[in-house]
């Protein structure tokens, strides 16, 4: 029978003063404990002993407590100190007890108003553990998965991976979804994912959740549809929940994950107390050792809101750098009582503002074992910093461990064989032929692939063919017949790569009309308006480049053919006329032969650009020659040497502009005409370089 005492005026003792050999024992009042207590110090400084003394006082005083121990040693010691009148109140949660797993389903009986809080809390736990591999897509898909499962009674965390791999199970869950946004995700968005994209999107979730659930230590706990422990009932009935999360027995990640989910469940159970008057809410004390392992983003919310729900926290860890900035600010800003054992230099600098000017960082660094500096909450006000010595163990060993474990198993554990049988039944593998199921799954997968066939045109034969594989665009595609023909052509030397037609667009998949438009491709229609394929912007650009390349190749072929025909007929390939300079009138310009009329259009496009370049170069060089002529004196005999020239002597008029018609004078019989450069137009041979020489 629980002892009656004055709870509001109760003092929990944990230290004694050491000022001037005082040695006066002191503690903290109930109302001041509602503002939480923070303990920090190096390992071996005395934190665990302080926590044990406070826990055992709460147990003896009849309070409800939860102690989360990531090492397991403290919880196992506490089991030996349980008084006889509280044996029935102990709930021992030990995941390492494989034969008697406790049922803890975080998705069990969650009220509608708290579903998003449960999902958010689980996401915070997952994010903290897989922080280096976390992504926005992973959070988005996993969040919608948890919310969908919360709407279906009987769901467990095992349903997460099954939602991605079992279409029938996924359909049954979707039918129960009440949240329209979550339902829209599964019906409209996820269903539109291509098989490849869906596989890539959920791979990270399946990998991490699968690792967690593949361990029978964890699976047998979270896979039980009905939780065997009710955290809300434990809080209201003031029971004792001892959680042994020994990292050495269940693994560090499993310890952090279970601890994070359990603390999140305690927070939600406390918030559910909103349905009762504040005066009826009984204080519940949550002790968390090495709490940095479980300090998620939601943990900061517990510190700021838990007081009104009578959830009082006592948290301890080794050094401040273990906490994220958000959690650190929440702790230092919300805790009422701060107790500091010996810490390192960085923490001493961090805590200097809390304890100055009475204590310096050097004082904090050099604290002896069991010595503390603290700021104690007294009647709602923080005291000035002072030093103290923690109390030695104050409770007596009752030898109750074996009895407590046996009684807790009877009330809160299930038989391992029954749990595993339930998991097998849930998966649908009960009394099933495994080989037959594997064959059916394989046939089903093959059938799904066979239903979706894609049409292509063979790049060699031009014939259509269908295969159940979607090939990459922008490369030649061959049917089996086309492959054989290409091999034969390469073998006998008749292979022409220009014969390969690159089809950059696949046609609409047969039996997969639902895929049309779900991958962002543009519809391609024929002249009748029927959709014959799809393409994206990149494939359109590739088509244009391919068309230009094909046009260039065709032009080269035509030009080569035209040159060959002109060579056989004796006609020149092209002619270029250079503007003539003044020359004797009796010299006639030969007629320039032109290409055959039927070849002129083909040749024109090739030589046109060359003619323009040659014309511009010729004009530039002629301009330079005119400048040099102006500087030279006249060498002809009769005329003055002063450079003045008579228009009656056109033979000396070498400065006549080229754009004017030159005046031609017939030379006298005894005068030999000057030798002029041969500027007659002549044919240009194929591949010949044309240059302009100096006179």
TrEMBL record:
SUPFAM superfamilies linked: P-loop containing nucleoside triphosphate hydrolases
Domain of life of the native organism: Bacteria
Record's compositionally biased regions (Low complexity): 645-654
Basic and acidic residues: compositionally biased ranges: 534-568, 590-604, 616-625
InterPro entries attached to this UniProt entry: P-loop_NTPase (IPR027417), T4SS_component (IPR051162), T4SS_TraD_DNA-bd (IPR019476)
Region described as Disordered: 534-695
Coiled coil: none
Domain spans labelled Type IV secretion system coupling protein TraD DNA-binding: 30-346
Protein name: Type IV secretion system coupling protein TraD DNA-binding domain-containing protein
Organism of provenance: Candidatus Uhrbacteria bacterium CG10_big_fil_rev_8_21_14_0_10_50_16
